[in-house]
Amino acid sequence: MTDGPGEGGIAERKMRFLFALRSKGVTDARVLSVMERIDRGLFVRGLFAERAYEDMPLPIACGQTISQPSVVGLMTQAAQVGPRDKVLEVGTGSGYQAAVLACLARRVYSVDRHRRLVREAEAVFSALGLSNITAFAADGSFGLPDHAPFDRIVVTAAAEDPPGPLLAQLKIGGIMVLPVGQSDTVQSLIRVTRHEGGYDYDELRPVRFVPLVEGLSDD
Ligand code: SAH
């Protein structure tokens, strides 16, 4: 069955989606299989819904964006999430990245400064039966001290430097993946690995994210 002339069938659409991920460097089989399973179309509403299977960022509510699928794949892959991991995501947005993480991890805590985004993402998580994600409305730059430390931290909004509280809430042996740099320029996606003696930093690739903004929003 196809879903309309000119659009190709669901299978073809999925194939193109996965091809785009692979050609941008998402090669981890577990990440690809989760991204094949989680329907990005559920996380994009309104005008842009029909573009949900293209490899591009799209606008969501509150003036924010759902990240480009290949960037979600690359960040997830770089975080090397395992089935026993407790993961913190800063920047719930649509909830798509959190849903992908939740299929690979034991538990995901996700935080956004917009209550509305948290509410809407929670509705999608329950529709998908993803019961291992807890979403909070809070300023994620302070992390979640009550649930720390974390095996993995994924930040999907750009700060100039890795926020101190997030570094402190990373377990020894833990990995944090985040964009750093000014919001109106190209930023660097970096991976921070914590070891006994401190932190190692790897630069992964250039990216563009919305800024990490201080404080809870009014909506
Ligand atoms: N991960 C999301 C994309 C997030 S866009 C997805 O998969 O759709 C970045 C998000 O970070 C926005 O929703 C924005 O509201 C949020 N954000 C920005 N600053 C924040 C902060 N200090 N604390 C928590 N969330 C923040």
Structural overview:
A seven-stranded mixed sheet has the order 5-4-3-6-7-8-9. The protein has a two-stranded antiparallel ribbon with strand order 1-2. It is of the alpha/beta class and 219 residues long. The termini are far apart. The protein is 27% helix and 26% strand. The protein has six helices and nine strands; from the N terminus they run ααββαβαβαββαβββ. The protein has a domain at 56-207: 3-Layer(aba) Sandwich (Rossmann fold), CATH 3.40.50. The model is unreliable at 1-5 (pLDDT under 50). S-adenosyl-L-homocysteine binds next to strand 2, helix 4 and strand 4. S-adenosyl-L-homocysteine (SAH) is lined by residues 64-67, 90-91, 93-94, 96-97, 111-114, 117, 139-141, 156-157, 210, 212-213.
